[in-house]
Amino acid sequence: MTTYPSLPAIRPLLDPAPEYAKWQSEEPVRRVTIWGDNSPWLVTGHEDARTVLADPRFSADANHPAFPHTRPGAPPQAPGLFHQMDPPDHTRLRRMLIPDFTFRRIEQMEGAVQRICDDLLDAMTDGDATEADLVASYALPLPTLAICELLGVPYEDHGFFRAKSNALTSVAGDPAEAMSARMALYGYLRALIERRAHDPADDLISRLAAQRVATGEATLDEATGMVSLLLLAGHETTANMFPLAVIALLQNPAQLDALRTDDSLWPGAVEELLRHLTVIHSGIRRVATEDVDLSGVRIRAGEGVVVALQAANRDPSVYADPDALDVRRDASGHLAFGHGLHQCLGQALARTELRLGLSALFRRLPSLRMTAPPESLALSTSTVHGVRSLPIAWS
């Protein structure tokens, strides 16, 4: 039995664990042990990954007794967390949020996101400053401010929900601590939703309170769960993706030079960075509800499945020279945001934050450099791959 690469111990900074390429070529659907005697199937090929993520015979229900959680003792599924639900509940809850995440709505936010980028860079370079921690000064506050603005969560409370986010997403944390963090975060958000019901503003929480909770379409507990999911996912992934993207570009100066020469390359470069880095290293989890044949392997009903997105996005049958970063590559079809019914609701916002944030950073700081070797950087203990800090300097 193969042991699944542990997190965060076996995790290269910019590349998938080296085992994945070997498994992908030899046995793209294979049994792995993730903890104890929990041994789901690991899927590493791009086409197989798309199949699992789109086929309704693979359930996302985290309350299923055979669901392959990232750690033992995972708390029961809370109301409103639609990313770990199946239709019809998934469809009912997700549909309530779609109007706030349409392409047009996110396009309207571009000015606000650009102002956030500019203000953060102004503060980071204020006075005679020539060095900073990119994570603390820019990569983390940028998506946090953006999601707070969209949701209507006071940014001054970001320290509170960041601490709770760390406890909830840590793969090494105590389950009791995770449950305590969830209860504290839910209590905070529940009270905020109730306040917005009586004192609405122009934000998602107010609309959810007035249009969904007040009408009985969603319970207060469901609304609380939905907002917590958006708050955590809305900053955690981009905050971790951003410093890795900076490192990748600094380590590929020819690619960075191309972006500095031609600003029109940035949208495609963001897609390539998403494919190349794929920060969800813990896999997307499913459980089969029927027998399914996948690449000649029979997956039985009641067996767990882990989809390794970082391996699927480096599949050589889909992407030529997949380990290379090429900002001119057509990276469409990558699975960094998942696939199928559960494809990331906030992907347009994440793309906007990365495109505007990266282009502004390299435009404002053309001499940007790292002041610590990448191999010395402390890795996140979250299910989202990243670094805890990134020391940088400029002249």
From TrEMBL:
Kinase found in the keyword field: no
Keywords: Heme, Iron, Metal-binding, Monooxygenase, Oxidoreductase
Protein family: Belongs to the cytochrome P450 family.
Membrane-spanning parts: none
Annotated protein name in UniProt: Oxygenase
Region (Disordered): 64-86
Molecular function terms, GO-annotated: heme binding; iron ion binding; monooxygenase activity; oxidoreductase activity, acting on paired donors, with incorporation or reduction of molecular oxygen
UniProt cross-references to Pfam families, sorted A to Z: p450 (PF00067)
